[in-house]
Design goal:
This is Spermidine/putrescine transport system permease protein. Belongs to the binding-protein-dependent transport system permease family. CysTW subfamily. InterPro entries: Bact_Polyamine_Transport (IPR051789), MetI-like (IPR000515), MetI-like_sf (IPR035906). By secondary structure, this protein is mainly α. The protein has a single domain, classed as MetI-like fold, CATH 1.10.3720.10. The protein is about 75% helix and about 0% strand. The chain has 11 helices and no strands. Helix 1 packs across helix 11, helix 7 runs antiparallel to helix 8 and helix 8 packs antiparallel against helix 11.
């Protein structure tokens, strides 16, 4: 017998969606407001978006964010993929312990991670700057890549690899022609998630950034303390759009070739 959901559950879900997304909708709407006063709508305009690309401070923060995101994405994707592959061949007890360690950056609060990394960099006398931000972003992005690639490996199974080896393929040939093509969508999805997390991160970056390595989220925070302007709304809208696009692309690659079996991103 098919059960029906209570109507109040649907209403509750709708109210929760409105509560979560309504502030974002207001930011997007007022980024096109011709007036500098958010409380007053004076007409539609694109001028706040065009002014962003002539602002030297915004462009500098953007280049810092992109540089840090690209480097941290490449390194964390490589390390996370290698970790996922190596965990397949370890014993169950060791795998359980290593999984706990690799999941830890996902579980612990960002403020704890940022503070602990700050203490670490201070103790080993590494000056705060782009390098420290990159290391911090690699630290938490690696775990997300590991989780996504591991899920892909688990869904793939070992039948194809064993069949290739039975037919005379070497370990490298099995990896090159069987394993790697199967997990490539997961690797790409993990890389997109790592890039998105790095681009959007504020809390961890706030602790480990230096005076010449201001990222876009930190720049927005500094400007908001002076008051929310239309330029900030426009900048936030661009970040929201980029993040949504990257998340959708990551989900598309993650589900590529899986048929009816869907995997949800660990966010």
């Amino acid at each position: 017998m098919k059960s029906k959901n209570h109507p109040l559950l649907g209403l509750h879900s709708l109210l929760m969606m409105i509560f979560i997304y309504l502030p974002i909708v207001f930011i997007v709407i007022y980024s096109f407001n011709d007036s500098r006063i958010n409380a007053k709508w004076s007409g539609f305009t694109w001028k706040w978006y065009s002014s962003l690309f002539t602002d030297r401070h915004v462009m500098e923060a953007l280049m810092n964010s992109l540089t840090i995101a690209v480097v941290s994405t490449v390194v964390s994707t490589i390390l996370g993929t290698v970790a996922a592959l190596s965990m397949r061949t370890t014993g169950s007890k060791m795998r359980a312990g290593m999984n706990g360690l690799l999941y830890l950056p996902i579980i612990i609060p960002d403020i704890i991670m940022g503070l602990s990394l700050l203490v670490l960099f201070t103790q080993i006398h590494i000056p705060l700057g782009k390098i420290t931000v990159m290391i911090a972003h690699i630290t938490f992005s690696l775990s997300y890549v590991y989780v996504i690639v591991t899920a892909r490996l688990t869904g793939m199974g070992k039948q194809l690899e064993e069949a290739a080896q039975d037919l005379g393929a070497s370990s490298w040939q099995t990896f090159r022609y069987v394993t790697l093509p199967q997990i490539t969508p997961g690797i790409i999805a993990g890389a997109l998630i790592a890039f998105t997390l790095s681009l959007d991160d504020f809390m961890v970056s706030f602790f480990v950034t230096g005076p010449s390595s201001t990222t876009l989220p930190i720049y927005i925070y500094g400007q908001v303390k002076r008051g929310i302007s239309p330029e900030i709304n426009a900048l936030c809208t661009i970040l929201i759009a980029v993040s949504v696009i990257l998340i959708l692309l990551a989900q598309m690659f993650l589900n590529k070739g899986q048929g009816q079996k869907k995997t949800t991103l660990p966010l």
